[in-house]
Design brief:
mainly alpha; Helix Hairpins; about 75% helix; NAD
Length: about 100
């Protein structure tokens, strides 16, 4: 039994949409910078799942190449973003975005 063929494409896309929605809700509702970062990662992983799904069902490698680009962007985002959050925490002793007003003039 070929397991990936047994699961319809729509189920993968529905799962991707659910994970992306959870990520959007996390970004819009939560105020903790670390939780917002994790929510962004959820959205990127949901996009990766959709890319891999279309790549598999269309028998094309283009989606998998996009996944490598997205993973590269996600790794860079984590490295730079966490460095910024650590520095802000050292300066302000908080990671809540409502209490951080460093960019206000």
């Amino acid at each position: 039994m070929n397991l990936p063929a047994a699961v319809p494409m729509s189920w993968y896309l529905i799962l991707s949409a659910v994970v992306f929605t959870i990520g959007i809700i996390g970004v819009l509702v939560r105020r903790n910078a670390l939780v917002i970062f994790m929510s962004i990662e959820l959205m990127l992983n949901a996009a990766n799942l959709a890319f891999v799904t279309f790549s598999h069902y269309l028998n094309s490698l283009d989606g998998q190449i996009f996944v490598f680009f997205v993973m590269t962007v996600a790794a860079a985002e984590v490295a730079i973003g966490l460095a910024i959050i650590v520095n802000v925490y050292r300066l302000k002793e908080t990671v809540y975005v409502d209490e951080i007003n460093l960019l206000k003039g």
